[in-house]
Amino acid sequence: MLSTRKGERGLLRSFRYRARSLIAGQCCFCQVIPAGSAGLCPICTGLLPHLLNQCQRCALPLASPEDSHCPQCLSQPPELDSAYAAFLYGYPVNRMVAAFKYRNQLAAGRALSLTLAQHIAEQPALADVDYLLPVPMHWGKQLRRGFNQAELVARDLGKVLGLRLQANLIKARRRKAAQQQLDKLQRRRNLQGVFYIPANRAGAIAGRHILLVDDVITTGATLNTLAWLLKLAGAHRVSACALARVP
Prior knowledge:
Radius of gyration: 18 Å
Structural class: alpha/beta
Low-confidence stretches: 12-23
Strand content: 5-15%
Helix content: 25-40%
Number of domains: 1
Protein name: ComF family protein
Pfam family, one: Pribosyltran
InterPro entries: ComF/GntX_DNA_util-trans, PRTase-like, PRTase_dom
Organism: Biformimicrobium ophioploci
CATH topology: Rossmann fold
Distance between the termini: 25 Å
Largest sheet: 5 strands, parallel
Number of strands: 7
Strand order of the largest sheet: 1-7-6-2-3
Family: Belongs to the ComF/GntX family.
């Protein structure tokens, strides 16, 4: 147990944001091997739990490569028209996301974001996206954290994919309670009244295909709430992408 904890602490230390590492082109994971375009070397990239077979509507992992949708989406289609995640939310991606969100280790988040961008570029369902919309964060929470991690991911995606970022199409009216320990129904209730579309932004939504961007998809409650609001405002299609999907 002690050696495992030491190993995990060492892994987190390796994600520290160091400008000299980026300039030198070293892998942000091992900091030894030269990195590829996503900031990771080929060996470390192969160690990550890539999500290769997933539901086209909610990004849940599927057992068979012949399936395209999970049973839940077939019986009760979500508000989202499509969803995509680059990784399973498991070790070491969960540690990388935590380092990114809570320890300001931006290199870890950027490496995952650039890998996600490469995968999105290969998805036909996302070929006609008009805007990237990061999941909004209440201004008080963003002020305390210093950044909205979904917006940082969206900025990286926009630069790679040549897509416009629209960070203010939806705003958070109030802070929602922490959702980590809530089930799907509790999350839906927790989100009631949290988000709204400013009156002057509705014109930018009508008839558009909007790609929501988040760090992790857990139950999909937040993304489906946002998709519902966008479709009420006239969005033609709403998709979502995230760094990782909780299986």
